[in-house]
Write a structure and sequence with these properties.
about 350 residues; alpha+beta; Elongation Factor Tu (Ef-tu), domain 3; 3 domains; six-stranded antiparallel beta barrel; four-stranded antiparallel beta sheet; 5 helices; elongated
């Protein structure tokens, strides 16, 4: 028996026993792609987080939210809600109707007006008067003193309502002017003798007429409240049929003419920011970028709200609160109080 060995084996993977194997070159491509895919999947998180960390070192970014300035609408007087013209989220123009209500007429108001009307008629017929000149001078001073006391109380009440936002400066100035006028009349009557017996009646007539006018204008039962500003209805605090009192808040409006951003800046980055510093604001809801500028000197620091921080490893859980004013007009869907944003500082 004869045994022989041959070293002429073909190392070409595409040929076997001198027979060409079709597509032989592609038989290991899929395993190679599979391993490359596995490597990419494993490396992707590492590359992503490494890029985030490097980006945070190179660029100053701060989390924040859209902020809309709020205005509270207070009641000038007591009443009962009849209808509400808008709902939460509605956009409204300046001086738009907000709600209607029926006034609550104070107890005894009609009786008070009736007594004043009777006194007015008595003064007109001359049934009140007589006596000596000294008596009439005393009556005149007493009548003006009562008027001064009435308007002094009305002025104090109107001032208190104005401080709460339930009365306007014009209403206060009107009452204050009448108070000063009567004080001047009281001072003049105190030193000036009464020249004619009817002077006391004439002064009292003026006082009674003013009192009747002041009380009668509140008898109209139907009233309405208009918005002084335009913007968005943030909250309605009352319901139809609900009774409210003077000075009570009825609604909260959000000003949309100027939109602000409330940003939380890390302490080590604060030295790079000052009044007038510009920034780019990325609105996460629309992925649009707008420009803004710092408009208030920062005065406080607070905890960064959960869910808006985009920093992987924050150096501090508290940030310096900075307010920026957005320079560009936002789309209606972007004007959302509390909408998260990311601020990139210039």
């Amino acid at each position: 028996m004869k045994i022989s060995f041959s070293n002429n084996k073909n190392s070409d993977a595409t040929v076997k026993n001198n027979i060409k194997i079709p597509y032989g070159n592609a038989k290991r491509i899929f395993p190679q792609l599979k391993w490359w895919l596995v490597l990419i999947i494993i490396a992707l998180p590492f590359v992503y987080f490494s890029g985030k960390i490097i980006s945070e070192w190179l660029f100053v970014r701060s989390p924040g939210t859209i902020y809309l300035e709020k205005v509270v609408v207070n009641a000038n007087e007591g009443g009962t809600i009849e209808s509400i013209a808008g709902k939460r989220g509605d956009m409204i123009a300046p001086n738009s109707l907000l709600l209607t209500y029926k006034k609550i007429i104070p107890t005894g108001r009609l009786e008070q007006i009736a007594l004043l009307e009777a006194e007015k008629n008595a003064l007109a017929t001359g049934n009140i008067g007589g006596g000596t000149t000294a008596d009439k001078n005393y009556q005149q001073i007493s009548a003006i003193s009562n008027s001064v006391a009435y308007y002094e109380k009305l002025r104090n009440d109107t001032g208190a309502l104005m401080a709460k936002g339930a009365a306007t400066r014009a209403e206060y100035e009107q009452v204050n002017a009448k108070y000063n006028e009567l004080k001047a009349a009281l001072a003049a009557a105190d030193v000036t003798p009464v020249a004619a017996p009817v002077l006391s009646n004439e002064v009292r007539k003026i006082q009674v007429d003013e009192s009747i006018k002041s009380l009668t204008k509140f008898l109209d039962n139907n009233a309405q409240i208009n918005t002084g500003i335009g913007g968005q209805i943030n909250t309605i605090l009352v319901n139809v049929g609900q009774t409210f009192s003077a000075g009570e808040p009825l609604a909260i409006l959000a000003k949309t003419e100027n939109v602000y951003v409330s940003v939380y800046v890390e302490p080590e980055d604060f030295k790079k920011i000052s009044l007038g510093t510009g920034a780019k604001v990325k609105i996460l809801g629309s992925n649009r970028t707008v420009t803004a500028v710092v408009v208030e000197q920062p005065i406080s620091a607070s905890t960064v709200p959960t869910g808006i921080s985009n920093t992987i490893y924050p150096n501090s859980m508290r940030g310096i609160n900075v307010f920026l004013k957005i320079d560009e007009k936002l789309n209606p869907e972007e004007i959302v109080d509390g909408l998260p944003v990311v601020v990139e500082w210039n």
